[in-house]
Each structure stands twice: as structure tokens, then as C-alpha cells.
């Protein structure tokens, strides 16, 4: 069942990271030159936090 949590979290993280990046670019008024690196940083931080939470909740 754990793999389902990680799969759903991964899909959700991708969508949320894209939304966050779009919001930042809209407020900035321009696209980032290295957009993929910014996206990677956003999704990396969110993934580490989310996966640690899932790990904590499923280990009990």
C-alpha cells in the first residue's frame, strides 16, 4: 500500500511544483532563464518533506 502513497504523492508534487513555479513567474513578470533548475529545486524540497511525512506515518 505504501507504493500507492508515494505514487499519488509524486503525481501531486509534480502538479503542485508546476503551479508554484507558474505563480512565481507571473508575480515576477518573466520566465526564469533556467526554468527546469528552479522547478527541480521546488519539487526536491517538497518531495523530501512529503516523503519523510509518509515514511513517518506508515512506520507506526
Report what the structure shows:
The structure is a single chain. This protein is an all-alpha fold and 60 residues long. The chain has one domain (2-58). 85% of the residues lie in helices and 0% in strands. The mean pLDDT is 96.
Question: Which descriptors would you attach to this protein?
Answer:
single chain, mainly alpha, 2 helices, elongated, 60 residues
TL;DR?
The protein is mainly α and about 60 residues long. Helices cover about 85% and strands about 0% of the residues. The chain has one domain.
Cα gyration radius (Å): 14 Å
The SSE string, one letter per element, is: HH
* Strand elements, count: 0
Q: Report the major sheet.
A: none
- N-to-C span: 14 Å
Structural class: mainly alpha
- Residue runs with pLDDT of under 50 for 5 or more positions: none
Strand content: under 5%
- What is the overall number of helices? 2
Helix content: over 70%
Described by the principal axes of the CA atoms, the overall outline is elongated
> What number of structural domains do the residues give?
1
Amino acid at each position: 500500500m505504501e507504493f500507492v502513497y508515494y505514487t499519488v504523492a509524486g503525481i501531486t508534487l509534480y502538479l503542485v511544483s508546476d503551479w508554484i513555479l507558474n505563480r512565481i513567474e507571473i508575480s515576477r513578470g518573466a520566465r526564469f532563464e533556467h526554468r527546469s533548475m528552479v522547478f527541480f529545486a521546488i519539487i526536491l524540497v517538497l518531495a523530501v518533506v512529503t516523503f519523510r511525512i509518509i515514511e513517518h506515518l506508515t512506520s507506526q
